[in-house]
Design goal:
Elements (H helix, E strand, L loop, with lengths): L9 E4 L20 H7 L5 E4 L2 E3 L3 E3 L9 E5 L5 E4 L10 E6 L2 E6 L2 E3 L4 E6 L2 E6 L2 E3 L6 E4 L2 E6 L2 E3 L17 E4 L2 E6 L2 E3 L6 E3 L4 E6 L2 E3 L6 E4 L2 E6 L2 E3 L17 E4 L13 E6 L2 E3 L3 E5 L9 E4 L2 E3 L4 E5 L8 E4 L2 E3 L5 E5 L5 E4 L2 E2 L14 E2 L85 E5 L8 E2 L11 E3 L5 E3 L4 E3 L5 E3 L4 H10 L2 E9 L8 E9 L2 E8 L10 E5 L12 E2 L10 E7 L4 E6 L2 E7 L13 E3 L11 E9 L5 H10 L7 E2 L10 E3 L2 E4 L6 E2 L3 E7 L5 E2 L5 E4 L3 E11 L4 E13 L11 E7 L5 E7 L5 E5 L6 E4 L2 H8 L4 E5 L7
Parallel strand pairs: 1-2, 2-5, 3-6, 4-7, 5-8, 6-9, 7-10, 8-11, 9-12, 10-13, 11-14, 12-15, 13-16, 14-17, 15-18, 16-19, 17-20, 18-21, 19-22, 20-23, 21-24, 22-25, 23-26, 24-27, 25-28, 26-29, 27-30, 28-31, 29-32, 30-33, 31-34, 32-35, 33-36, 36-37, 55-62
Antiparallel strand pairs: 38-53, 39-40, 40-43, 41-42, 42-53, 43-52, 44-49, 44-53, 45-46, 45-52, 46-47, 47-48, 49-50, 50-51, 54-57, 56-60, 58-59, 58-61, 61-62, 63-64, 63-67, 64-65, 65-66
C-alpha cells in the first residue's frame, strides 16, 4: 500500500556533530552517518545531509513507492561530500549503491575518491541523480544496470577510471553508463577528463535520451551507443582540446559520437542497435566525428542528421560496417575541416542514404550526392576556428551567419527533429548542421502526399511488372492502367522463375508484342518519366550498355534506355540512362551516368526520373547518385518502338541478372516518393515462407546456453496465424520470438513452422545449428572476456581462452599435450585456429570486443 505523503518524515545527518543515537528528525539532533538515516527511511521520506565529509560506503535497498521517492539531498545548498579514499572494496563495486529499490533521488551531493565506481544502480526503478558531482573514482562514475526510469540530470562526472588508463571501450571504465536499462534520460550533464568513454548506452538498453550534455576530453570517446534500441542523442556538445594527457593509448584523440554492436548482435537479434538518432550535435576536434566500426556488421534504422562536425583530426565520418545496411540516413550535416582531417572513410555503404550534406572538401564519390550536396570551404559559421579550451568552449562559435551557404539547403523528412541545438524551430526547408537561423526560414515546404507505409506510389503509374508468374513465357503488366502491355520471353530455357522473381541467366529477349503506345503517348504528353526497377545484376562486368529496360528499335535508335555499363571497354560497374528529346540525339545522347563502382552484384533499387524542366536524376537505393539537365521535349518519341527487358531487339546488348519489379510512370517521382518505394522494399511473391535467425555467435556455447530466436523474416501474405518451434531436444514453443536455454551438451537441429490465416503452412529446418558444450569455465573479473575454441563436430572444448582489457589473449589447450599460448589479439587467435572444424565461442558475448 502506498504511504500517505502527509506522514512522511524528514531526517537530518551531520558528519561533524551528529550521533546515530539521536532520532535524526531535527537539525540539532542529527544522525552522524548517512546509512543510519537510510536504514530508518521509508517511501516519501527526505534525508538532508549537512555540510561535511562522510567517509562511508552507502547501500540503499528500499522497495519505495511510485510518486513518493526517498530523497537524499544536500541541506539548503550546503556541500556534503561522500568520500571513499580510505574505504577498500573491489573495482566493480560502488561507493553508493542503489539495489532493488524504487523511487530514490540523490540531489546536490559530491561523491568522490571511490576505489571502484561512484554510484551504481542495480535492478531498480524511478531513480534520479540530480545536481551531483561524481569524480576521482578508480572505475566508472555513475552506472545503472537492469533498471527502469533512470534520470541523470545536471551532474558533473569527471576524472574517473584513471587507475585503469583504459585502452579499449569497456563498461567498467565508462564515466556515465547504462546497461540493460529502459526509459533513461541523461540530460544537461558535464562529463569530462575521464579515462574511458564519457556517456554510453550499453547493451540491452531501450528508450534512451541523451540530450544537452557537454562531453570533452574523455580518452576513449565522448558519447557512445552500443547494442541499444530507440535511442536519441540530441543537442550535445562534444569536443577534444588535444591535450596529451587525454589522448588514448594509441596517442590519438577519442571519437565524438560512436555507435556499435557487440559481436552477438552485429547483424541482428534482440539487441541489434536500431532506431538510433544522432541529431543537432556539435562535435569539435575529436579524432572522428561519428564512428561506426563493426566488422561483419551493418547499420539498421539509424539517422545522423543536422550535426555540425568540425576539425576532426582523422575522419569526420568513419564507417567500417560490411552491410548491407537498412533504413539508414546521413543527411543535413555540416562537416568542416581546416586541419587536413578526412571527410569520410567508409567500407560499405549499401543501404545508406547520403544527401543534403555540406562538406568543406570533396568527400569522395561513394558518399557524395551530386544532386543535393554542397562542397564549400566557407560554411558561414560565426567562428569555426575558435580556440578549443577545456571547460570553456561553448556552442556559440558554430552558429550559422545570416549569409551562410547552409541556409535552406536541407531536406525535411516526416518525423525529423523540429528544433535546432538552441531550440530554434526548423520550419520550411531546414538549414544544414545543428543551427537554424531564426527569421531566415524558407516558406513551408509542402510534403509529398505519400501512401501508407506498406503501399507503393501509384499516382502516374502506367506499366508494372511484378514477376510473380512463377512459370511460362509471359510477364504480365499488372498496373491495371489502359490495355495491358504484357511481355514475352523469347527463350524460356534462358531464364529461371524463382520465388522472388525472374532470373535471366543467359542472353534472351523479353519484349512486348506491340509498340509501347500507352507509355509513349503518356510521356509525350507529360514530358516526364520515371523508370523504376528492383534488380540484382549477375555481375558488375556488363557493358554495351547492357539493357535493363528499353523502349527502342535497335542499338542506335531509342526513346529511352536504362542500362548497365558503358560501351567499348569503358567502366562497366555503373548505371546509365539515354533519353531521346528534341535536344538529344536519336540515340538519346548525352547519357546520364552514375559514378564508377555504383553498380554491384547485390540487390538494387534503381530509379531514373526526368521532369518537365529537364532535370534528370538516377537514384540508387533511395539516394540521388547523379543529376543532369536534359533539355528539350519528348514529342519526338517514336510511336513504333516496343518495351523490352534484358536486351535489344537484335539481341546484342544482353543484360543478365534477376528482375523483381519494373515500373514506369508518366511523371517524375519526387525524392520523397522514390525513398518511400525503396523503404517498402522489393515485393515478395512467396505466399508463406518460414525463416528465422539467431544472433551471430549464438550457434555455439557453454551449458546453460541461452539463444534468442527471431522469426521476423518469415512471410505470409494472408498474415501469420501460428508459430511452432522445435528446439531439437524435444521441447517446443508457440511464441513468435522465443528465448530458449539449452541445459545439456549436444548438437541440435532447429525447426520453425508457420501457418497463415488460410491454413497454409511452411516449415524450415536448420540442421545441427546449435552446439552446446558442458565443459566448466572458471569465473573471471568483469573487465576480462572469456572464450573457448570449440570443436564443430561434437561441441567439445579444444582450448580455453581469455581476452585481457588491453585486447591481448591467452589460450590454454584442453587436450594432451596441455600448453598455454599468448596472442596479440582475438584476430590473431582466429587466424591461427579457426576453420570449418573449429570456431571461437564467447562465453561473455556482451563484453566481447
Amino acid at each position: 500500500m502506498e504511504r500517505d505523503k502527509t506522514m512522511s518524515t524528514t531526517y537530518f545527518v551531520s558528519a561533524t556533530n551528529g550521533n546515530n543515537n539521536n532520532p535524526g528528525t531535527q537539525p540539532e539532533q542529527a544522525l552522524r552517518t548517512i546509512q543510519a538515516a537510510i536504514n530508518k527511511a521509508q517511501a516519501g521520506d527526505t534525508i538532508y545531509l549537512r555540510a561535511g565529509t562522510y567517509a562511508e560506503r552507502i547501500y540503499i535497498q528500499k522497495p519505495g513507492a511510485a510518486g513518493t521517492p526517498i530523497l537524499i539531498s544536500a541541506y539548503q545548498e550546503e556541500k556534503p561530500v561522500i568520500d571513499g579514499a580510505n574505504i577498500n572494496f573491489s573495482d566493480n563495486m560502488g561507493l553508493v549503491v542503489i539495489d532493488q529499490s524504487q523511487s530514490v533521488t540523490l540531489q546536490g551531493l559530491e561523491i568522490r575518491n571511490s576505489r571502484g565506481r561512484g554510484v551504481v544502480v542495480l535492478k531498480s526503478s524511478q531513480v534520479s541523480i540530480i545536481d551531483c558531482q561524481v569524480h576521482s573514482c578508480q572505475a566508472g562514475g555513475v552506472q545503472a544496470y537492469q533498471s527502469e526510469a533512470i534520470r541523470v540530470e545536471r551532474c558533473r562526472v569527471y576524472r574517473c577510471a584513471w587507475r585503469f588508463l583504459a585502452g579499449t571501450p569497456s563498461l567498467l571504465y565508462t564515466a556515465l553508463a547504462t546497461k540493460g536499462c529502459k526509459d533513461v534520460r541523461i540530460e544537461q550533464n558535464e562529463v569530462f577528463e575521464n579515462s574511458g568513454i564519457g556517456i554510453s548506452s550499453w547493451t540491452g538498453c531501450e528508450k534512451v535520451i541523451i540530450k544537452k550534455n557537454t562531453c570533452y576530453d574523455n580518452r576513449n570517446g565522448q558519447i557512445n551507443v552500443t547494442s541499444s534500441v530507440d535511442v536519441v542523442v540530441d543537442g550535445n556538445l562534444c569536443y577534444h582540446s588535444g591535450r596529451d594527457t587525454y589522448l588514448n593509448l594509441y596517442n590519438r584523440r577519442g571519437p565524438g559520437l560512436t555507435k556499435h554492436d557487440v559481436s552477438a548482435y552485429r547483424t541482428g537479434g534482440k539487441w541489434h542497435a536500431r532506431n538510433i538518432q544522432f541529431t543537432n550535435n556539435i562535435v569539435v576536434g575529436c579524432g572522428t566525428g561519428f564512428e561506426n566500426i563493426m566488422e561483419r556488421g551493418k547499420m539498421t534504422s539509424t539517422t545522423l542528421a543536422h550535426n555540425t562536425i568540425i576539425n576532426s583530426t582523422e575522419q569526420a565520418i568513419k564507417l567500417g560496417c560490411d552491410g548491407p545496411s537498412t533504413n539508414t540516413f546521413i543527411e543535413n550535416n555540416l562537416i568542416l575541416s581546416v586541419n587536413g582531417g578526412e571527410m569520410a572513410k567508409t567500407k560499405k555503404t549499401d543501404g545508406i542514404v547520403w544527401r543534403h550534406n555540406l562538406w568543406s572538401t570533396f568527400p569522395g564519390q561513394t558518399v557524395y550526392n551530386p544532386a543535393t550536396d554542397v562542397v564549400e570551404s566557407d560554411a558561414g559559421l560565426a567562428n569555426p576556428n575558435a580556440p578549443v579550451e577545456p571547460g570553456a568552449l561553448t556552442a556559440e562559435p558554430y552558429k550559422l551567419l545570416a549569409n551562410s551557404i547552409a541556409i535552406d539547403k536541407g531536406y525535411y523528412r516526416n518525423g525529423a527533429t523540429v528544433e535546432d541545438f538552441w531550440g530554434n524551430k526548423r520550419v520550411g526547408k531546414p538549414d544544414l548542421g545543428a543551427s537554424e537561423v531564426p527569421g531566415r526560414a524558407s516558406d513551408e515546404v509542402p510534403q509529398a502526399d505519400l501512401p501508407a507505409n506498406d503501399v507503393r506510389v501509384t499516382d502516374g503509374l502506367i506499366a508494372l511488372y511484378e514477376f510473380k508468374e512463377g512459370r511460362g513465357t509471359k510477364v504480365n503488366d499488372t498496373s491495371r492502367v489502359g490495355d495491358a502491355l504484357n511481355l514475352t520471353i523469347a527463350d524460356a530455357n534462358k531464364v529461371t522463375w524463382g520465388t522472388s522473381g525472374l532470373l535471366v541467366k543467359e542472353p534472351t529477349i523479353i519484349s512486348s508484342e506491340r509498340p509501347a503506345k500507352k507509355i509513349i503517348d503518356a510521356c509525350r504528353a507529360s514530358n516526364e518519366i520515371t523508370v523504376e526497377v528492383w534488380i540484382q545484376p549477375l555481375n558488375n562486368e556488363q557493358d554495351g550498355p547492357a539493357r535493363i529496360v528499353s523502349i527502342s528499335k535497335d542499338k542506335v535508335r531509342r526513346n529511352i534506355t536504362l542500362g548497365q555499363g558503358l560501351y567499348g571497354g569503358q567502366p562497366r560497374d555503373l548505371f546509365m540512362t539515354r533519353l531521346r528529346t528534341t535536344w538529344t540525339s536519336a540515340n538519346g545522347l548525352p547519357p546520364v551516368i552514375t559514378p564508377p563502382g555504383s553498380a554491384t552484384a547485390s540487390l538494387t533499387h534503381l530509379v531514373y526520373t526526368r521532369n518537365t524542366s529537364g532535370r534528370a536524376m538516377i537514384y540508387i537505393n533511395g539516394q540521388e547518385r547523379v543529376v543532369l539537365d536534359i533539355p528539350g521535349q519528348m514529342t519526338n518519341w517514336d510511336t513504333s518502338m516496343p518495351l523490352m527487358l534484358a536486351n535489344e531487339l537484335d539481341g546484342d546488348r544482353a543484360w543478365l541478372g534477376e528482375y523483381r519489379l519494373a515500373a514506369i510512370y508518366k511523371r517524375a517521382l519526387s525524392s520523397a516518393e522514390v525513398l518511400h518505394n525503396f523503404s517498402i522494399g522489393q515485393p515478395g511473391s512467396t505466399q508463406v515462407s518460414a525463416q528465422f535467425t539467431i544472433p551471430e555467435g549464438a550457434e555455439n556455447g557453454i551449458a546453460p546456453h541461452t539463444v534468442e530466436f527471431d522469426s521476423s523474416e518469415s512471410v505470409a501474405v494472408a498474415g501469420i496465424a501460428t508459430y511452432f518451434w522445435e528446439f531439437g531436444d524435444g521441447q517446443t514453443s508457440n511464441r513468435p520470438n522465443p528465448t530458449y536455454t539449452y541445459t545439456k551438451a549436444g548438437v541440435y537441429s532447429i525447426s520453425l513452422t508457420i501457418t497463415d490465416t488460410k491454413g497454409v503452412s511452411n516449415k524450415v529446418t536448420k540442421g545441427d545449428l546449435i552446439r552446446v558444450s558442458s565443459d566448466p569455465f572458471p569465473p573471471t573479473p568483469e573487465e576480462y572476456a572469456r572464450f573457448v575454441l570449440l570443436d564443430v563436430a561434437d561441441a567439445s572444448v579444444l582450448a580455453f581462452g581469455i581476452q585481457y582489457p588491453n585486447l591481448r589473449c591467452a589460450l590454454m589447450w584442453n587436450r594432451d599435450p596441455f600448453h598455454l599460448l599468448v596472442f596479440k589479439d582475438i584476430d590473431d587467435v582466429s587466424a591461427k585456429y579457426t576453420s570449418d572444424k573449429s570456431v571461437i565461442v564467447w562465453v561473455d558475448p556482451a563484453e566481447a570486443t
